[in-house]
Amino acid sequence: MIDATEQINAVRRQLGRRVLEAGEARVMTISQTYDAPLEDVWDACTNAERIPRWFLPVSGDLRLHGRYQLEGNAGGTVERCDPPKSFAATWEFGGEVSWIEVRLTPVESGRTRFELEHVAHVDQERWDQFGPGALGVGWDLGLLGLASHLAADGSGVTPQESEAWMVSEQGRQFVTASSERWGEASVADGTDAGQARAAMERTTAFYTGAPTT
């Protein structure tokens, strides 16, 4: 498994807002640069045979206007696709609809910058309770899985191995650090520091089972 501290530090996390037809939405952006060529990262993110190796089993039609379903998680419709640069889709889960967009950019030395934007209407009560970490920790785990899958030294792990790692001490430390970083992003976005800290602790407890203070 990739070093947890190194992975946490390799990821950039930002928050913002966007006005949609249904009103103001929260925008979460998470990004990382991988030591892999653009075409390989694109294939890892769009190939139904590779996605389960680092994320979740997926079924459906992974083409423009096709429907997809991630096992035990979200499904949706592919709304835009510009291979090998970007794709966008609805993210439908628990009766709610949000939107994701993945953008890939080649950078120096044959590396690729992966950026995922998640746009969602989140009611204030739920935001106050858990903050951005409710979604953000999950995406951090996704980027960790992709990093492991793309590792040049072949150190990739299966999702099943990742589940076991999640309940290990290192896994709990990773989730805690991710939750803390999303709390910091929330403060940078204007949230009161005490409120952000309380939401971060509730999110950490949700993922790790640790008691809140």
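the 2nd protein, sequnce then structure:
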Amino acid sequence: MSPPQSEERTVPRTHALTEAGLSVVDPLAGDWSCRSGHEAGLRLTDDDAMTAVFVVNDDMAIGLVWALHERGRRVPDEVSVVGMDDIPAARFQQPALTTVVHDFDAVATEGVGLLLEEITSPSTVERVLYEVSPPLVVRESSAAPKAET
């Protein structure tokens, strides 16, 4: 599930799925709210083949988990859910939400540093790509894939 402007969050997901030999499903759009996660979750619950969902923010992941619960799908026994941002409420959900942590302070510090460097010593480089490897905080909403029977 992804809000329309979240390509920087969905491209790595697509790359990782492709690299792992897994099918890539087009993301559902949302507006970053628990409500939109819940609405998307209701649309996804009838897909018995679905075993995991990556959601581009924790609020939408929380809504999705609630929709799965309402429809009788057990998290993480039947469906693993991973959010992104590690909002304070993520650890207090039932089940506690597995999430990707962003160090926004580090990204902002790096960005300001690159900007100051460009101001003081302009280069011919039009764009600088700064990559981060955010950690995954594994909590109760995710489990190892089940073995094929």
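Residues 104-120 form the longest helix (17 residues). The CA atoms of residues 43 and 103 lie 32 Å apart.
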